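Lab notebook, page 48
Experiment: co-folding of the full assembly
Goal: obtain a model of how the components sit together before planning crosslinking
Operator: M.T.
Materials (sequences as entered):
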Amino acid sequence: MGVVLDPEKSRGSGKFHPRGDYPVRMFHVSKSYSPGTWALQDVSLEVGRGQFLFVTGQSGAGKTTLLELLFAAERPNEGQILVLGRNIARLRGGAIPALRRRVGVVFQDFKLLPNRTVEENVRFTLDVLGTPRREARSRVFNTLRQVGLQHRRYDQPKALSGGEQQRVAIARALVGDPEILLADEPTGNLDPELSVEIIELMIAAARRGTTVIVATHDISLVQRYGMRNIRLEGGRLLEESQEGTPS
Amino acid sequence: MTAWVSVLTISVALFLVGAFYLVVINMDGLLEEFGQDLTVTAYLEDHLTVQEMAGLAETVQSIEGVASVSVVGKEEALERFKEMTGGASLLVGIQGNPLPASFEMTLRPESRSAAGISILETATQGLPGIDEVRHGQEWIDGYARVASLVRVSGYVVGLVLSLATLLIVANTIQLGLYARRDELEILQLVGASRTFVRTPFLLEGTLQGMLGGLLASGLLWISFMIFTPSLEYGLAFLLGQAEPRFFGLAQISRLVMGGAVLGLVGSVAALMDRRS
Ligand SMILES: Nc1ncnc2c1ncn2[C@@H]1O[C@H](COP(=O)(O)OP(=O)(O)O)[C@@H](O)[C@H]1O
Ligand SMILES: [Mg+2]
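Observation: model returned without errors.
Model output:
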């Protein structure tokens, strides 16, 4: 069920990640925001390198909390979390930014800066990484081409549709070549056709070796793809589908 | 936009501090002018030779609190007396020159008080060749009281104004942070370190403070140029001979540095308040 005591044995034959290469591992993790109620309860989970995982569940099930823990925005009350080999519960303040530079994040509301161009928004990540200007320019261009927006690079976000804005946000998350990509309801504000586009961009990232975790309450979207998915209910990890991998 | 609001706020605040400072240094000039006129006179015995007088003047000069010693010879004393009384008629019938030679001592600013005077008195009174020491006691006490009042109130008002300025600046910079909270949030999401996030804000705050200081100096100078001529008569009455003084380069750079410190401390306070 949700608890995996010996991941190497139960899942070690995965084709897409070598033995023991799990960028994300959670062991009996619980999180509570207020005494007596659990946003997450006894969740254990492993996600391999290059794997794509859907986290489903109704509103309030704990999906956002799970991603926030992986992103070190929150700390667990119980259990251990290893992200890229680092113990989140014991991470010192200064180590959090260093970890975040290896993890990309995408949100439902895009979080783009309205008075910057598309290019500047994407370059933000590389400014923080300290990438030299020339290299940054070409990497931004290439990443924008991946999401099909290189021709809009001098526009401001408000000139773009919702789907396009989310593609910019994905470009911003991917331009720094993160080992993990976390997305919280990335299609929540988008029409179904655009949602498919967004998910496919993230599947492509997984094929290139990024570990991708997408939280969504949209079951129909999940069912379109044969990807691995887990379901949260009231903070508990209820069922886990057959392990899926991008083909 | 908000950056200019900060610059303007800092400059208005520093303008007030600077205007007050300007008043204080002019009062100080005035006090100094009065202080120069406060002298202690030591009358000398008649039998002293010129050499003895010179030696004694040197001794007196080295006494604590004495700024300068000028020798008034018997002849000069007589001249002054004649000038004061409008002729020599009072001296008719008196043999020779009855007036004694004297030393006129001016005081260092820190000794212009009753205590300073009495130290000076005890030190001079016992010296051989000195007959009597005189000074205007009431003058000294009044002067000392006014001088310390000006200084103490200068410090107090200056401190209060600076604290108020700091609060205003911190608040203005906080507004600036608020305007850029999206940017700060995204910086944190993409893994910017604390230093990476903070350094530009601190630099910006410092720079805004310096600009504010420069602007305040400029505004003060313009106001000084506009207002001193029209206040000439009133000022002449207040300041006497003393010219109204504006800041020197050192004081202007202090105002600019003060702005920089205000901007820096204000940004630090604003960032600490935000804490995330
Ligand atoms: N910052 C918070 N403070 C208090 N309670 C929270 C906070 N974030 C989430 N919760 C609670 O934790 C539970 C899980 O929320 P969340 O992780 O946002 O679920 P989901 O993303 O699946 O909708 C909910 O009951 C929610 O009210
Ligand atoms: Mg959520």
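Interpretation: Helices of chain A lie at 7-11, 63-70, 95-100, 118-129, 133-146, 162-174, 192-207, 219-224.
Next step: discuss with group before ordering constructs.
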